[in-house]
């Protein structure tokens, strides 16, 4: 997600909302004063896929970094500018949409050595709590499910701004990152190097660069 791009396109593709609309469990309040302008952002949002990126990066052969993204997913976002602990997010990502720029590598990733997309076609993130840490920074905790294994992760989340674009869409930008150990989700495939070390690092950095569009209530 090219983080809240202010460059606009006539083509937008808000994803369909998924998952329950009821509030997620609230986090403890941080006691940090909120910017009053954030209150105006309270409501339902969806990710604008053409202007966003759900990506990852991982060290390869100990010396280089491979980057990729998932291009097909659904989203349901709720931001509460008055009570951030009520904010929530849910993403359902289609594994087969992985794109690292190398067709052979993508085929390996969706195969049985890694994601095994035929058996586990989707991965999911569902938030469980959100805490305001000061200024425009938040911490979102949630459950990440890959290959039917669900484990908690913690995202460092930054609010990047909002704007009404030339096409009448109200947009808000967010950037979130976390680092996981892929083996905890059963992604254990690797090859050892002669000089020592692994072909693919066990640590994977996840990056969520989001341009979100306010959802229009159904009539």
Textual characterization of the structure:
The protein has one helix at 103-110; strands spanning 43-47, 53-60, 64-70, 73-79, 88-94, 98-99, 122-134, 137-146, 149-164, 170-181, 200-214. By secondary structure, it is mainly beta. It has an eight-stranded antiparallel β-barrel. The protein is elongated.
Brief descriptors of the model:
mainly beta; 8-stranded antiparallel barrel; 11 strands
Question: What's the short story on this structure?
Answer:
The protein has 219 residues and is mainly beta.
Order of helices and strands: EEEEEEHEEEEE
Shape: elongated
Biggest beta sheet attributes: 8 strands, antiparallel, barrel
Q: List the uncertain runs.
A: 1-30
Radius of gyration: 18 Å
* Count of beta strands: 11
Question: How large is the share of residues in beta strands?
Answer: over 45%
Layout: helices, strands, pairs:
Elements: E1 43-47, E2 53-60, E3 64-70, E4 73-79, E5 88-94, E6 98-99, H1 103-110, E7 122-134, E8 137-146, E9 149-164, E10 170-181, E11 200-214
Antiparallel strand pairs: 1-4, 1-11, 2-3, 2-11, 3-6, 4-5, 5-7, 7-8, 8-9, 9-10, 10-11
């Amino acid at each position: 997600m090219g983080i809240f791009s202010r460059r606009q396109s006539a083509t937008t593709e808000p994803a369909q909302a998924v998952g329950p609309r009821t509030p997620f469990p609230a986090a403890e309040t941080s006691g940090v004063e909120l910017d009053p302008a954030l209150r105006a952002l309270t409501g339902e949002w969806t990710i604008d896929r053409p202007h966003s990126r759900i990506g990852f990066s991982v060290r390869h052969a100990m010396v280089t970094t491979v980057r990729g993204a998932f291009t097909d997913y659904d989203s349901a976002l709720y931001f509460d500018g008055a009570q951030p602990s009520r904010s929530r997010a849910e993403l359902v990502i289609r594994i087969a949409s992985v794109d690292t720029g190398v067709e052979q590598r993508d085929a390996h990733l969706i195969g049985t050595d890694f994601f095994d997309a035929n058996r586990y076609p989707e991965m999911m993130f569902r938030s469980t709590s959100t805490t305001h840490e000061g200024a425009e920074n938040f911490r979102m905790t949630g459950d990440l499910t890959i290959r039917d294994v669900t484990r908690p992760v913690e995202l460092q989340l930054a609010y990047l701004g909002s704007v009404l674009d030339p096409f009448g869409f109200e947009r808000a930008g967010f950037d979130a990152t976390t680092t996981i150990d892929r083996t905890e989700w059963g992604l254990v495939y690797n090859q050892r190097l002669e000089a020592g070390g692994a072909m693919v690092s066990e640590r994977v950095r996840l990056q969520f660069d989001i341009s979100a569009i306010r959802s229009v209530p159904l009539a």
